[in-house]
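**User:**
Make up any protein.

**Assistant:**
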Amino acid sequence: SVDGRVVGSDQSLKANRIANPMRKHVPFILLVAAFAAYLFGDVLIGRAALWGWDLQTAFYPFLYSFQKQLHQGHLNLWDASWGLGHPQLAEGQSCQLYPPMVLLLLFLPYWKALNLFIVLHYLLAAFGMYLFAMRRNLPASSAMLAACTFAFSGFMMVHCIHPTVIAALAWMPFVLLFVDKAVSDGRIFPSLLWAGVVLALQILGGQSQCVFFTVLIATAFLLCRCVARRDVGRWKQVTGGVFLMVAVAALITLPQLLATYQLKSVTLREVLSRDIYVKSLGLSLKSLLSLTLPYCWGGPENYAGDAYFWESTAYVTALPWLLLPPLVMLRPRSRETWFWVGVLIFGITFAVTQHNPLYNLLPHIPVFNWFRVPARYLLLSTFALAILLGRGHHVLSSPVGVDQQRKVAGVVALTGLFILVAAAALLMGVQLKVNLLRDVWSSPTFQQALFGTDGCFLLVEAIVGSILLIALARRSISPHLTTLLLAIMLLADLSRVGVAMQCKVDPAIFVYEPPVAEFLKSKPGPFRILTAINPASAARFEEVRRLPPEYQETAMLRPNLNVLHGLANLDVYVALEILSAFNFRTLCTLPMDEALLTYSRAMSRERVTLRGPGWKQRHQLLSLLNIRYVVTTESITAPGWRLVFDRGVRVYENQGVFPRAFLVGAARQASPEEALRHLMTGDIDFSSVALVEQDLSFRLPTQPPVGFRGTVSAMKYRDTEVALRTRAGHPALLVLADSYYPGWQATVDGQGAPILQTDYGLRGVEVSSGEHVVVFRYQPPGWRLAVLVSLCTVAAVFAALVVTGTRGRREPSCR
C-alpha cells in the first residue's frame, strides 16, 4: 500500500541519518586498528609478551601476587614474599582497585592480562583524543591525526614498560572532554561529576603524577574556556566545579589514597631533600634535541643517559612543528590556539632542570614538590602538540585566500628549512663542547643523528611534509588524499620509534622454572633468600651463557623475579620501600669498603651513615632476618656457610640462621640510631638479646637468665595473618623477623597486645612465662571506614547522575 511505502521510506531515511554520521569515523577506526595490530599483533594473539625493566621487576610480579590472592577471594593487602613484607595495596602500581585490571585478571593469566591491558589503553587513548578533538570542532580527519599523534607518540610508546602511565594518560582526554561539556552545555554539575569519576579511574590506575598533570591542565582549560566565552561571572562556579571534581575522585579512591599515604610516611622518599628529589631525572638542555632527533644520543637502551629514553621521550615527528607557524599566522587571535601553545611551552620549561631558575622555587611549592621525574612534564607538550597538529590541519583544510596561500607556502617552507638547520646546528654545537672541530664530522653520534635513520626521516618529513601541507592549502591535491599521505608519513615515523622502544619475549618464560628455583622450593620453610649476583660473573658459566638474555635474568633470580617462583627475597625493588627495610637491605648488600648516608627513621629525619659490615657481623644480620640461602656468583669462604648448589649460580646455606620467629629472654631499650650501630658492629648476640625502641610493660633483664629456653611453633603463616605458639619458663620477648609497620595488630591468648619495634625494624611482642598463642593480623588503620566512604560516594554520584540526566532530558539545553 501507499502507507506501507511511506512508512518504509521513512524508516530508510532514519537508518541513513544514523549510518551517514558513522561513516566519517570509519577511517579512524580502521587506521588505529591496523596500526595497533602492526605494533602489537603478536602480543594480542599470545605469541609474544612485552618485556622491559619495570615490567619484569615490578608489574609482572605485582600482578602475579595479586591474581593469586584474587582467586582466593581477597585483595593482596600485604605480601610477605617481598623483602621483609610489604603493604602491596599501598603500591598504587599493583592496580588492585582499578576495575579494568581486576576484570582482566579474573579471566586471563596475569601476563596475558597485563599485555592486553597495555594495548587496550593505547586504543583508549586514541579514542579519547579523537572524541575530545571532535568536541573542539575539529573534523574527523584532523581529529584522527591528533589522536594518532597522542596515542602513539614517543612519550606513550616509551612508557609501554610503565602500564600505569599508559592507563592514566588514556583517561586524560576524557577528563578534558567532560570539562569542556561543563562550560559549553551550561550543565556544570553533571559534567564535572563525570570528570571526577574519570579522574578516580586515573588515580586507581596507579600513576599520581599523571593525575596531577590532568588536574593542572583541566583547571587551566576550564578558565580558558570561560575567558573565550566571555563568561567571567562563571569563574566562581568553575572554581567550585574543579573542587567538586577533585573531591569526588578523592572520595571514590579513598582506600587507595589512604593506604599509599600511610606507606609514603615511612619511606625513604619522605625524608629525601626536596631540592634533590624534585629535580631527579630532569632533562638537560641538549636533551631537547630528541624532540626532532629521537635517537641523537643513542638507542632506547640508553636508560639513564643523556636522553632518559624510558622516562621522557616526547617525539611526535616534525609535522606538528611544521603546522604550528601557519596555524598561528592564519588564526592569530584564537585564544585556544595560544592556550595550547602555552601548554607546550610550559611542559618543555618544567621538563628541563639544567640551568632552570624555576627549580630554585619549585621544591618549596606544595603539590609541585610531591613528584620527581620532571622530564614527564613533556607529557603536557605531547598532548598540546597533538591538538595543535589537528588544529593546524583543520585550518589548512579550510578555504584559504590566494594571498594567504602564498604566505602559507613561504612560512611552511621556511619552517621546514629552519627545523633542519636548527637541528644540525644544535647538534654540532653540543658536539663542539666535547670534540675538537676537526673531530665533529667523524663523531659517531653526529653521523648517526644526521646521516642515519633519524636524519633521513627528519629530512623527508621536512621536505615531503612541507610539499603536502602547501598542496593542502592550495587544493592542488585532494584533501582526502593529502590527509591520507600525511597520516601514512606520521605513522611510519611513529612506528619506527615505537617498535624500537618495545622489547618482546617468548611467553614460555612465564612458566620457565630455573634449576636454582627448583632447588630452593624443595627446601622446607619459611625462609628468605638473598641474591647477590654479578651478571658479568654469571655469564662465565655455560648453564647461564647458553640461555637467552631474558632467561638469564630469571635464572639469576634478579630482584622481584623470585616472586614468580614463590620465593621470599630480601633484595627487592619497589617504588615506595619502607625505610627500615631499605636500611636492612643496604646493610646486607653494601660492600665492606663502602658507606651510604641515609636516615634512621622517616619521622625524625635523623641522618646515619651505614657501613658495609664484615662477614662475621653480616652473618649474624642475615641470620636475624631469616636468610637461609644466599644466591651468588662469588665464593663465600667465611665460617658458617656451606655450598649446597653450583649450577650457573651458587647457593650457600647459612648454617646459623635464626627461625622466622623466636624468643629472647633479655631486652635493652635503644633508639633506631643505636640499633643500627649495633647491627653494623655485631657486638650484641641478637639470638638472646633484643633491642626495643618503646618501653616494656614488664622489665626483662639486659642479659638472658641462666638456662633460658623458649620455643616457638608456627600454627599459621599467611600474608595477613601469623599465628604462633610460644612456650618459655621465664618472661620473654617474641621476635618476628617481618617488617614493623602500622596496621599490624597482635593478640596474646585473644587479648590485645602492643607490637614493639624490635631490632630496629622487626616486630616484637611481650609474653609471660608459660604457653601462649600469639596472633598477628594486618588490618590497615581506617581501611574499613575508607571503603565505606568510597562505596557511599559511588552510590551518591550514581544517584546524582541519574537525577540530573533525567532532568536534563526534560529541560532544554542552556547552550
About this structure: The first helix runs from residue 2 to 23. Residues 1-8, 302-310 have pLDDT under 50 and may be disordered.
